[in-house]
Amino acid sequence: MTTGLPSQTQVIELLTGEFARAGYEIEDVVINSRTRPPRITVIADGDTALDLDTIAALSRAASDLLDDIDGAVGGPDGYVLEVSSPGVERPLTTEKHFRRARGRKVDLALADGSQLAGRVAGAADGTLSLVVRTGRELLVREIPLTDIIKAVVQVEFSPPPKAELELLDQAQGTEAGA
Questions:
Q1: In this predicted model, what pLDDT tens digit does every residue of 42-92 receive, in sequence order?
Q2: CB atoms closer than 10 angstroms to residue 162
Q3: Pairing of strands 148-153, 137-144
Q4: Taking a C-beta distance cutoff of 8 angstroms, is the pair 117, 78 a contact?
Q5: What is the DSSP code string of 38-85?
Q6: DSSP E strand boundaries for the chain
Q7: Most-buried pick from 20, 48, 113, 167 (CB within 10 A)?
Q8: What are the residues whose beta carbons fall under 8 Å from the beta carbon of 27, sequence distance 6 or more?
């Protein structure tokens, strides 16, 4: 039985150019043909956060492109298209993820079994720069990405302390000058 839906590969190939022009890349496509109507979810990420206007524009463009595939996608009921960002629950696994999380607080599990929490100052050349608190002092700790077993963003409900932001700015200046 055919669902009338494109494959994950077809969706990625069809939409990649449009998303790239907008400054985003497709991280994943999930096609669920079991729901009625079927659902196509496109997860996109970029150096700037996806806002509602951008999601709406990308959704319209994606819908137009998908509708052009051999007529109606998904059969007589059509399909539901959802464009979204990966969300904060996504683990950080690549240097690019850490760069995009600059300024966010993260929890790390390290290869030596230790745990560490801090604010991402940047990531370059396989190394994470993390603002950490040791007692009353803040410092920037350099951690090889290969030493990180797991990293997740912490959800914060208040702005970061001023001292952490100042150290982030200093670390960014050092990274840019390197």
A1: 998 887 777 889 899 999 999 888 887 755 555 556 788 999 888 777 788
A2: 8
A3: unpaired
A4: no
A5: -EEEEEEEESSPPPHHHHHHHHHHHHHHHHTSSSSTTGGG--EEEEE-
A6: 24-32, 39-46, 80-84, 105-110, 115-124, 127-134, 137-144, 148-153
A7: 167
A8: 43, 44, 45, 86
Nearest to 141 by CA among 100, 97, 176, 110: 110
**In order of start, what are the domains of the chain with their CATH numbers?**
8-84 (3.30.300.70), 91-173 (2.30.30.100)
pTM equals: 0.64
Residues in the chain: 178
CA distances from 115 to 52, 107, 110, 111, 126 (A): 35, 7, 6, 9, 19
